[in-house]
What we know:
alpha/beta; 330 residues; 3-stranded mixed sheet; 5-stranded mixed sheet; 45% helix; 12 helices
Amino acid sequence: MQPSVSVIIPCKNGASWLADAIESCLQQSWPNLEVIVVDNGSSDASVEIAQRYASSPVVVLECKRAGASAARNMGLQQARGDFIQFLDADDVLDRDKVRVQMERLESAPLAIASSAWSRFRSDPNEAAFSPEAVWRDFAPEEFLITSWLGGGMMPNFAWLTPRAVIDKAGGWNERLSLNDDGEFFCRVALAASGILFCNDARGYYRTGTDGTLSGRRDQAAIASAFEATELSCGWLLARGKSGGAAKACATQYQRFIYDAYPEAPHLVAAAERRVAELGGSHLQLQGGRLFRILSRCFGWKLAKRCQVAWQLLRNDKEVTPGRNQPDGSR
């Protein structure tokens, strides 16, 4: 009998896209597959949409604990599969994604498989695939170092993971919100025997959606991003403090600094100390022409403050009645 695969879909207010995600699972060419949809307190029609699919391959659960990590852990508790596929409610899988990865993993049961992926807005057929440095086979530490030094990343749906590897790595950290997937898959990668890239396995990352965690700038989200960075770097450095690992971790902290400044000065200061302790990073903050001019003349911190102030002003104009609509309508 073929090994079984459990697809776990956490969902909060994903009614606009959830059916697409579920359909992409039900159309998989790997036959031994179950789908677990875990609603996480939706106030829209997400539960009703999921229930339309409730049958032997589709299980619908409701998680009362807050956060996508809690929902994924509930899915893991329910899952019967030998392999686990995570999928956010606004993303979709190519019909052969699971099959291609399963066939590769047959010869390496304690490895994890990654896949090609691309972004889209409304139609996955519009997606253009652009290979990155992480699109190849890796040893676990090598993958993390390459990714953190700018070689690209893998969204959570790109992975197909043996349940035994997840059991070794541990479940999702429910304290985390922002970058919970980065911390989780750091542990999973380090628990695996290797990473096998499958170019013919494909997934699609929806962009342009409102209310995503990755767009949050509140203090709780920034604190989560810092804790995730601390934990992930700790996991990698515990495997060996090579020059490459230290440089990769310093770059992760520097990336956090650029993202969190000026909203969280105490966490930025802590991250700056980590960068110095690890030997520094050459990561440069990117921006438009005006940003680059301000950075050269006055430093990146002033340029970032100006950038944030302009974004706040622009957002204020967009939401203030009468300021962006000619007739002043609400």
